[in-house]
Structure formats: C-alpha cells, structure tokens
Amino acid sequence: MSIDIIGAGIGGLTTAIALEQKGIKTRIFEQAESIKPVGAGIILANNAMQVFDKLGLRPIIEANGNVMSSMNITKSNLKPLSKIDFSYFEKKHQTKSIAIHRGTLQQLLIKQLKSTEIKLNHKLTALEKTANGYTLNFENGKQIKSTTLIGADGLNSVVRENILPNNNIRNAKQICWRGVTEYQLPLNFQNELNEAWGKSERFGFVQIAENKVYWYALKAFKQNKDEFSVGQLDRYFYTYHSLIKNIIKATNKAYINTAEISDLKPTDIWYKGNACLIGDAAHAATPNMGQGACQAIEDAYVLSECLAKYNTEKAFSVFQKLRLPKAHQVVKTSWRVGKIAHLKNPLLIGFRNQVLKLTPSSINRKQNEQIFQLAEV
Ligand SMILES: Cc1cc2nc3c(=O)[nH]c(=O)nc-3n(C[C@H](O)[C@H](O)[C@H](O)COP(=O)(O)OP(=O)(O)OC[C@H]3O[C@@H](n4cnc5c(N)ncnc54)[C@H](O)[C@@H]3O)c2cc1C
User: How far apart are CA 369 and CA 86, in angstroms?
Assistant: First the structure.
C-alpha cells in the first residue's frame, strides 16, 4: 500500500511518521518551495504529547521545548480570573504539555522521516477520479497517479474543494499577531501560559525555551482587519501589565506574524472514495483553545492505526467515527470562547469575569479530561 499526503504541515508530517512506523509507504506533496518556519510558538497540549510519546518523539520534543504546567486567564493587569492546573493530567497520562517554537518542531518532524520524500513546489490544483484512484494535477504542470490520498492541506484545502465542495469557512473577525522574542520571564511565569483578557483584545505569552518567549495578541474588528496595524501594538496594549508591554517592546516588529482568524463550520463527512481529510482541512478551529494542531496530531495517530488495521474504506469510516465528535467539540467551543473573550460591553465583561472567577476548578478539569483523552483504536 502507498499513500500520498498533500501538505507538509504538522498534520501531514505527523501522519507520514506514523504511517512509516506501520511500514506503509508515503509521499508528501507540498506547495511551498522550501519549508520556512513560522515565527511563532505552539502549544502541544497533553493529548498531542501522548501521541508523540507513542511515536517515540516525546523526549526530543521535551528537550527542545518548555514544560507548561498551567494555563491562566487573567485581567489585563495579570490578576487571575481562572486557572487550569495540568499537574493532574501530567500524573494521569504521564506526559506534560510542551510549548515549543514552530520552526523547531517542524525540523524535528522532518528529521524523523526515513523513507518519505517531501516533494516541494508541488501545489495541487485539481484531482481527477480514475478507475484505481486519482490523477493529481499540480501547478508545476506535473500529473501524478495516486491510489490513496490524504488531504492535510489546511483550511483552504484543495483536496476538500475537489471531493467535498461547498464547505463554509467562517471569518471570526479577529486579527492575530504572533511573535517570538529573546526574553526570560520571571521565575513564577516560566512554566505557565498566561492569557490576559481586556476589552475586545487579549494577549497571551509563554516561555518556549531558555531566553525565548512566544506571545500572541488578538483584537476583534468590525469591518476590515486593516483598521489595525502592527505599528500600533504598543498603543493597543498600553493599559496592560508592564510585563506585557516589555515583551512587545522587546520584539522586532519586522518578524511579527499577522493573520486573520477563520475556521471551518463543522461538516459531517471527511472522506470520499479513496481520499480522506485530516487536520485543518477537515476541522479547522479558531485558535482559542490552542488545540488545532493537537487535533491534527491526534488525527495522524488514529488514521495511521486504522489504515494499518483495516482496508482503506473501513479505515476512513472508523477514523471519522472515532475523531469527529471531539474535533467538532473543539471547533464549537473555540468559536464560543472567542466571542466571550472579545466582549466589549463593560457590564458583560464584569459578569464574564465573575463567572470565570467562580467556576469551580473541577468543571475546568472535566472539560480538559475529554480533550486530553485519546480515542482507542
Ligand atoms: C494564531 C494561531 C495560533 C495557534 N496556536 C495553536 C497552538 O498553540 N496549539 C495548537 O494545537 N494549534 C494552534 N493553532 C492551530 C494550528 O496552527 C493548526 O490547527 C495546524 O497548523 C493545522 O495543521 P495542518 O497540518 O492540518 O494544516 P497547516 O498547518 O495549514 O498545513 C497545511 C500544509 O499544506 C500545504 N498546502 C496547502 N495547500 C496546498 C496545496 N494545494 N498543495 C500542496 N500543499 C498545500 C501548506 O503549505 C501547509 O504546509 C494556532 C493557529 C493560529 C492561526
């Protein structure tokens, strides 16, 4: 059996590693001319790290990232509103959540590939159904035959457009800036993610390595993201805690990544014939729960297990059955969290903050309990 993967993102790379380990041959086709690291960090929550543990990659990821043992939502002055302590899950699953530079993670994953070739400069433009599978048409003029296809080509998936058109990409009307800067947080902040919520904007930061902090900032907009500019970041956060202002000041603005936030309205079908979607191509979420890549990593694990056990059709059907409920829960909850985080009305903000403060930690734990539990294949 040979499987073709479109997209060398975190989902595509992890799937190739997992399939290789099952003895299944894979090829990856990636549109980019070279794999450039995004200047940002990423949080690999406990569920993603359980998968990397199964793939034998936990030690190397831990060695290159930083342990994140809690997540706090705070006011703009960093006074706590809610705390999720991950130590319970660290004991339960014997794995820790890790914050790491995206570029470092990408390179670690690429280095794990033994037989898989990543064919760069291969932008898929269309699929044609054939008797045995598909003809893949690429922008560079090449046509390649494929029997089994995995679409790991992200939110604007061409595989999805071809096999399951008419999906709905939703614009969350939020702009997101991400940066990595040379900075050492005070000791008490070094193993936690803090996200400060203000009025229609928020700021999150976490240590990802010695003297390296990853931060992200979001702001809700009404009409057009061009209402805001990276040059004004200091101004948007001038009422925030001095630590946040210092992190922004310490960042070279030329390397700040700007993105508009969107997701994919949940869809009930992820595969057709011999082609199946994974990761953002199947269930892109807004980043409010920091679970998009973690869900793609879970897909990689579950799909590879299914493909090793069943014929292609059954594998895709069992994969979808096992993964869809949780992936959709993440999409829906993330969308809701985004709305709550960006309230503007001071009365509603006050009410929200009270609810956050009064929510028992057992409820926060229960929510994460489901998210961190891997499916059994
Ligand atoms: C601001 C922000 C912060 C985030 N933070 C986190 C976090 O902390 N933790 C977390 O788990 N998730 C986070 N996410 C979500 C996470 O980034 C995505 O869910 C994850 O990258 C999805 O991986 P993927 O491999 O499915 O898709 P992608 O990362 O989008 O990769 C798709 C790949 O396919 C390639 N491609 C696309 N089209 C084609 C084509 N036609 N032909 C060939 N190749 C193609 C692309 O070049 C790319 O390499 C965040 C997202 C954002 C926007």
Answer: 10
Verify whether ligand 1 is closer than 6 Å to residue 27 (CB atom): no
State which amino acid sits at residue 203: F
Which pLDDT band, with edges at 50, 70 and 90, does 111 fall under? very high
What's the gap in Å between 72 CA and the centre of ligand 1? Answer: 25
User: What is the model's pLDDT at position 138?
Assistant: 98
CB distance 118 to ligand 1 below 6 Å? no
- How far away, in angstroms, is 4 Cα from ligand 1 center? 18
pTM of the model as a whole:
0.96
Residue nearest to atom 17 of ligand 1 (CA): 293
Long-range Cβ contact pairs of 163-166 (< 8 A, separation 24 or more): 163/127, 163/271, 163/272, 163/273, 163/275, 163/277, 164/267, 164/269, 164/270, 164/272, 164/277
87 burial (CB, 10 Å; 0-12 / 13-18 / 19+) is exposed
The reply to whether ligand 1 has any atom less than 6 angstroms from the CB of 30 is yes
Domain boundaries, the chain: 2-169+263-372
Res. 88 pLDDT band, cuts 50 70 90: very high
Predicted pLDDT of residue 226: 72
In the prediction, which pLDDT does 257 show? 93
- Tell me the CATH number of domain 2-169+263-372, given options 3.40.50.720, 2.60.40.10, 3.50.50.60, 3.40.50.80: 3.50.50.60
Residue having the nearest C-alpha atom to atom 21 of ligand 1: 293
Where residue 37 falls among pLDDT bands split at 50, 70, 90?
confident
pLDDT confidence bin for 334, thresholds 50/70/90: very high
